[in-house]
Amino acid sequence: MELFESPFYKTYIKSFSQGDFESAKKSMLKCIENCEFAIDNVRRAVLYSKMADIYRLTSDLENAEIFYKKSIEIDPDSYLIKLDYADFVGAHLNNLKGAITICDDVIANLHLENDERFARDLSKGYYLLRAHAIRGYYRLLAGFQKASIDDLHEVWIRRNEQESVYSARLCEAFVSSGIEQDISRRYINFISK
Fold first, then answer.
1. CA dist 10 to 2, 3, 55, 56, 79, Å?
2. Alpha-carbon span 140 to 169, nearest angstrom
3. Could you give the CA distance from residue 171 to residue 56 in angstroms, rounded to a whole number?
4. Is 193 helix (H, G, I), strand (E, B) or coil?
5. Burial 165-191 (b: 16+ CB within 10 A, else e)
6. Tens digits of per-residue pLDDT, 104-114?
């Protein structure tokens, strides 16, 4: 049986979509406990990451961090999980330097990666764009304005519709800070179309 066929996973999806995070948490824990669904590290890591998301949404930041770290421990090659964790570290733990460092590492590793690795995954450009958008946002909040402008440029180069939330958040931070308002407003207008 595949994960999406599991009654536990179906309950998780339904509960999560309805905002019943307590029921979603119980169902996801049953998915994690059931080794049949987590046959490889990639799938196990995704389940742990989903559990971290539930804890984050219920403001249980301690458990969210535990599950994000466990997810990364299980699948240390997952850029998606690392970037989710970077955003969590910046937004919820208010550790801007930590979020920036995680993004720095992701960007450096992505530049070393062979494009073939991404044949069955999201594109390398997707991860680079998301990493630059997250890093740029937290760099700006931390006061590194010049570095944020560099990230904004990278986001502009690598933009796509999938990451408009991260891109818009970075640009809105520029506008609200009064820095580079013209370029930020033009970028926000562009991605809003």
1. 11, 9, 19, 21, 26
2. 11
3. 25
4. coil
5. ebbbebbebbbeeebbeebbeebbeeb
6. 999 999 988 87
Specify the pTM: 0.78
Residue 143 C-beta-side C-alpha neighbours within 13 Å: 0
Q: Which two tokens stand for residue 93?
A: 């733990």
How many Cβ atoms from other residues are within 10 Å of residue 116's Cβ? 7
Q: For the chain, which domains are there?
A: 1-75 (1.25.40.10), 77-193 (1.25.40)
CA nearest 50: which of 84, 87, 73?
84
Residue whose token pair is 């720095």: 104
- CA 62 from chain centre, in angstroms, equals 18
